[in-house]
Batch of 2 targets.
Target 1
Amino acid sequence: MRIIGIGNALMDVLVPLKSYELIDKLELPHGGMLMIDRERFDVISHTIKDLEKEYAAGGSAANTIYGLSKLGVETSFIGIVGKDEVGDIYENDMINSGVNCLLKRSESTPTGCATALVTPDSERTFASFLGAAQELTPKNISEELFTGHDILHIEGYLLFNYAIVETAMKMAKKLGMLVSLDLAAHNFVEENRPIISDLLKNYVDICFANEEEAKALTGLSPHQALDKIADMCDYAVVKIGSKGSLIKHDGIVDEVAPIKVDTVVDTTGAGDLFASGFIYGITKKFSAEKCGQLGSILGGTVIQNYGARIPNNLWKEIYKSI
């Protein structure tokens, strides 16, 4: 099976922090995501200019596609970057990961950037400047690009651009594809609750949410939220952190334990890589429980390192676990 992802093509800038002081100073939602404009992006960039940083091609859907590609799945990714050095780095990083890059280039807008501030509790707080990514429109997708793919994966952060999300989902269903949606940060879900509910009912087959996102969408506890989401789509997945995940499919609920993790370094990419493992299981026609176990392996591995990329030497252990 082949997977195509659509999302905000953002360069991830990962900044480990020793305290919560900077989060408060910059007035960012701890553990959440805030969309920022160019002016605020410049302020944040200046504030962190002397701090330790790591860079990698990112964006939620791109991270999931990266993970699937590393698992040997044929993948493609649609997004927009700028005609700049950062855009070149982004494209090369995805290509080197084995992804068929279907990137467009903006003539005048720089490549977007997601600044992830990692606090001592290993939570990441995102300040996302979309840059060129916000220029993605329905004109950038076509049945020709989707043809030959079996699953469409879309990130919830793209919902600011509802037109392209709905167009892509409609196109995928017309071509007989499965549609996977990974919800965005809890504050973003709360702001877009009616839109997300409609998409789940009409187009989505697989929905991923963490505990906070599930509550933001339904107002309910994890188990109750799972039931409500499962009423709207085929596979409902609610991730509950160190307790693992809840999955409901065909009326059956599976509680999947997390893998043993000695030290949590950074939760960036945990949900994205969980989705990689889960969707990989779908491509192999595994049970919902086994799909969740694969998600736990990838999600539990990535949080032991900084950033949303798993070091190459650890993939050998992942293959053995699978």
Note: The chain has one domain: 2-8+59-109+134-321.
Target 2
Amino acid sequence: MENEKYVAFIDILGFKQKLQQINQAKAEALIRDFSAMLARQWQEHALAENKDIGGHIISDSIVLYSADCAPQSLKNILQYTIQIFRLAFNENGILLRGAIAKGEFNRLQEANLANLDKGLIVGNAYIEAYSMESRHKASAIMVGGAVKDDIAEYFADEYVLEKLRDEIPPLYTIRWADIDYLLEQDHLARFVGLAHEAAWLPHYYQTLYMFLTNVQSEKKIQAVFNEIFIMLKNQYDYRAVNVFIQNAFSTDINIHFREIFLKFLRKKIFQ
């Protein structure tokens, strides 16, 4: 369709729970730092001069949109999105969740009053991206079938797409990082610290599952769980280890993650 565009909706995962743990001043600092990172990356990706890509920041959320459905427009949105996912984790200590849809979209331009700003955005692509974003409780980038097909056609194997089970209509995820990234530098320690601070809410396990999905090396998977146990025991105590194990078997957690974790525990017991 002539008026079709790509639209991404991204926000901070677990933001409401985060606000309950911090005061107003820290909340304002978090949003300022997050917004500053988004703006800096906008400049570094040369999007400020790119008339084919637009964006709109609303509190802890950002809406990205293209002027068309050209391959380069999708590439720009994917590159920017993956980069801010990584930097939000590395620099701001937060996880993001987002979705990219394809369809009609428009941002209406109207004059604002001195004390009444207008951010008028409308279109089925925005509604779809907003709806998809909340369907999977993990730090990942969700796409529907139309965007999945475009990614497969334009970029071949450049992005890892994973189909989520039991989702109707079909939903696919794009990983913003893999297990090697998690095992680099202090990334795993940072992730464990965030998860422990949040009492290991389900979305941390779901995000961990994203890192472990389709990993062929059992040694790397074993290394992740071993390091988590060591970090929790050394930085906190055995009660922290207990919380991690107990919460991992909640019915809210992906059953396939539980299977991977059970396999690890069996090896620990019988090694």
Note: The CA atoms of residues 71 and 153 lie 9 Å apart.
